[in-house]
Fold:
Amino acid sequence: MRAVAYEVSGPSNEVLSVKEVPEPNPGEGEVRVLMHYSAVNPTDVKRRSVETPQFGPFQIPHHDGSGVIDQIGPGVSMELLGQRVWIYHGAHNRGFGTAAEYICIAQDQVVPLPDQISFLTAALIGIPMMTAAHALSICQDLEGKNVLISGGAGAVGSAAISLAKHKGAHVITTVSSAEKALVAEQAGAHVIINHQVENLDAALESQGRKIDLVIDVAIGTYLPRYLPYLADRARIVSYSSDGPELTTSVRPLMFVNAGIDFFVVFNLNQSEIQLAISTVCEALSDGVYPMLPVKIFSLDDCATAHKFVEDRTLGRAVLQISG
Structure:
């Protein structure tokens, strides 16, 4: 089969190539998926840039994707054959990700796909929507809560907007351009603050109510700005290390009984993963889909797709593999 792979870390145009590798066969508790689309996430780019292959002579990248189960391994129900699915954590702790014509993966890492959702949309679900779902779960009841989401035009940020609104929250988000503001608006944000042209502090103060939950893509950058506007027992959730190191005054957090939670989606336990998937599937059933624009690349153009993500271009990069 054809697959994208790299043997050493480095720039995408130097280390990524398409190669022929043997078709995989599913083992105990595994299914084989005929891949339709493979999405590129920032974590895929970062891993390729700094990590040499750790699970064999080469690494097939990408965690997220979509396709059809075409083979099943021992211990797997025959009913799964032909199932349309989306995939999560495809390349986590293994050498074979979704950037290939086939992937063999544990059956609990594929999720059935409703008929109304396209394979393209399905490839966008994995990391961003599961991250957003877990971040929002820190606040158990979102109905009527005031939620601030930084980076509302990013993959996780836009997903968090849609999921928070779906749960009944009042959503405030920050963006850095008029174009990104349109994306945040489409995702469902009630208040959009373009911090390139608006004073963030003044905009938050003008809301007239304190913030119950913050989902932050760059906590080192934003925390000092929203710290004065936190409600009693506010929670701050950080899922990314972008931006400067975190330096903050402790007493303002103590005096409102605030808490800060950090997590990486790959390190969630099984119950947390299942809760995130359940939240995502419920939202999908209610018509809440990823809202970012999509740029489609061929398998042979994977290096260009990685560059698209590295350049922080607005939207998602996806490889079309079949279909």
Summary: Residues 12 and 303 are 5 Å apart (CA to CA). The chain has two domains: 2-124+292-320, 129-266.
